[in-house]
Amino acid sequence: MVKVAAVVVTFNRLEKLRNVIASLEAQSLPPAWLVIVDNASTDGTDAYLAGLQSSVPLHVVSMAENAGGAGGFARGMSEGYVLGADHVWIMDDDCYPEPDALERLVAGFDGAVTELGPEVPFACSVVKFTDGSICEMNNPVTTWDWGRLLVKGQKNVMVTACSFVSVLVPRWAIAEHGLPYAEYFIWFDDREYTLRLTRRCPGVQVLDSEVVHDMGDNKGVNFSMVNADNAWKFAHGIRNESSWLLHHNGLIRWIEFGFRLLVNFRGGRVSPRLQLKMYRQYLRGIGFNPPLRFPEPDRSELTAGRRAL
Amino acid sequence: MPILAAGTTASPPCSYGDCSASVIGGSAPGQREATIISPLRDYLDQPAVFEVVADDVAAHALSERERRILVGAINAHVLTTPDRELTVHVYEPYGDYTPRTSDDRTFDGRSRLYRHRRFTLTVRGTVTATPALVSDARQIPLLASDTRHLMLSTDETARRKPEFVRPGDLRGKVLRRARNAAPLLYDELRDVELLRHRWRITRPLKRRDYVEDFRPGGDYEHDRLEVAGPLRPGAPRAVMVGMHWFELGGAERWAFETVRLVREAGFLPIVLTNRDSHHEWITRDELDGCLLLPLSEPTAMSQTPGSEQLMRTVLENFDVRGVVVHHSQWLYDRLPFIKASRPEVPTVDSTHIVEHRRGGFPASSVRSARYLDVHHVISPALSRWMTGVQRIAPERVVMAPLGGLTVEDTGVDTVRPRDTDRPFTVAFVGRLARQKAPEVFVEAAARARAQHPDIRFVLHGHGELAPWVHDLVAGAGLEDVLERRDDTVPVVETLRAADLLAITSHNEGLTLTTLEAVAHGIPVVSTDVGAQADLIPAEALAPRNVHLAVRRLADLMVRYARDEGARARLWESERAAERRLLAHPSANEWFEEMVSSW
User: Fold this and answer.
1) Model confidence, pTM
2) ipTM here
3) Are residues B144 and B70 in the same domain?
């Protein structure tokens, strides 16, 4: 029997979190564990989780401070790994899986393994908006031969990258490729991680596994949309992508990204002040290169002296 | 139900030694009849200190080797954290890694080796123990967890016994390349490096004072000595035996023999190992019915110094009547705790060989001298080192050779005449490991062959250096005249096919192979290491230095190939020395008598 740890990262969205938990408890293939990473919420989430009785064995990880989605997923995936899960199933606190989402996701993953081999590194669901339309922000990137499994009768599309909204990651992939970069904090953590996972073999989007993403506006994002309200998120995204391109893809790709930003900023008439702010983040990527981490003690932990009780 | 109340019946019944719920009498002199209430259960036909709450059919499909390692690993965890229900995940083997059974990562699962879960069991311990102290915050997540993570290795890997190469070990890679390119030069450089360690073994070593360790400034100043609690009424009688690993070497053959003798004396053998290994010999008959604890290290975070979770539970649930240490540093380190908790329990160790680097286990024996009642050694040379250099009181040192252990009485009383139908044959018998220096044998063979074309060779053994030795043989152009044999061929067959045995080791105690060869009428030439000089006359010894050894051994091979009279005289001299040695009570006789008094 496959053991799946459902990992939910939450921050100050208690009402939505209740729905997420209810959706997980209603799964036709129940998760073996429910790991909830509370990113130091201040809206009473901690008290709610402390008193929560769930039909699924519950593991609450209370972060000392908000580590962002990236830090939360890295921590939660590590927790699922050490619980002994065969897969971790990661999602935000506004993701409501349909009752058969996990069952179909696992079946889709197994089907892909049968066809593509044991190195299939993840399976993700179809992400719909609350009105039933496709969620603009959560569309995976397909491979050139995306239909290869469809013609074999599977309901799987081969993909190279997706967002962290209902993604099933097998434990071997965490052991082999590591955890998401916690230091990314928010944005681009999911894209970087899934691209890292698909270097040898693509992942799959399982078309009959569906989740609803209860986000505010159903809009995609691009760099022409930077404004004063969302600049903080774009700042993280640009720093993270800049870092990844420079340190993992090479100088040409990094320079190309700089030009792409310029084109987008101009197209979106982003104010010069914000452009300057964003380019500072672009340059921060030069010195920002977080280390790859795995679910294992780092050297300092092993060599450190005694820690008093 | 951690343990049965007196008078109730164990379920399922246990059939290991005197551990069943029964009334026995006269278990020790002066002891009144006692009801034995055993914590032992049976899982996968192995003695276990747990009951299985949720089983998995996959566990029942394991090989005998895997079963014993698995049950042993769960035993170790239950003894470390008794009174618990544990969820035990067992993962698929990964690469050539040795089984992970009890190290700190088996408690928290934070290891990249655990890639694919194989199956999961839920178990509940049948032992209890007084609480052990926890003194370091890093211990808490390990000991508080109710989940354990174990990994076995495949039988195929265990048979192949690969040389373990740690990924990213640049230093090891460079050293291996150097060894492959110039094996003898590499040995010379290692000898130079060893010089800085050798002085230590020529001076008395400092004895460990356990109580001092817990005083301010001591290694365990933040811990406290908290001895084991009282023995549970009706606990089964047991003897604890510590081994290096469940692999086969001279020391292990003797250790297995002691396990057999312990069992024959009516005790439950509790056999632990602490050296990472694939444990291919864990299936040996001597271990049938033993409580096995094949530990993997490090266990630093799960065992509190002075409180000793695992050992504490053993001492409280088993009536330990004696402790025998065979090359197990883990058990040496726990002797002070055992003596502090149960001062009346006799403690004995058995050592074979003084390692050039820091002395090896004889040095551990000396350091633990305050907590050992008897130091058993297998050669007069080691006895002299113990009493002379290390100033251990002679009455506490027992010299009892291992003759009789594997050396059958062949009735041979002359050198075995050469078979003139085949060329003169020189054999090497031993593990293909660094200590045995197979490279010296190959080089000496090549040199002897150049002087005397009518010699052939048999290289008998298997081990981590097997692929390298294969390349050496090919490189020396000896493929046509050097026959390779592995463990599938009995050693006796090789001895029957040989006219001379060559021991080329960098270091030895007193090799059983030498005794075996002499018993079969085969003379032996050897490097002058360990106690080999106790058996082999000076004219058949070669210096330890590898270049000199190659030259000398090659000359000796040629000499004895050409001079049958000299070969006969060598054997007679060795036979006489062997008889002198074996006139001492054998290790078997000594141990059997001692155990019967426990």
Assistant:
1) 0.88
2) 0.94
3) yes
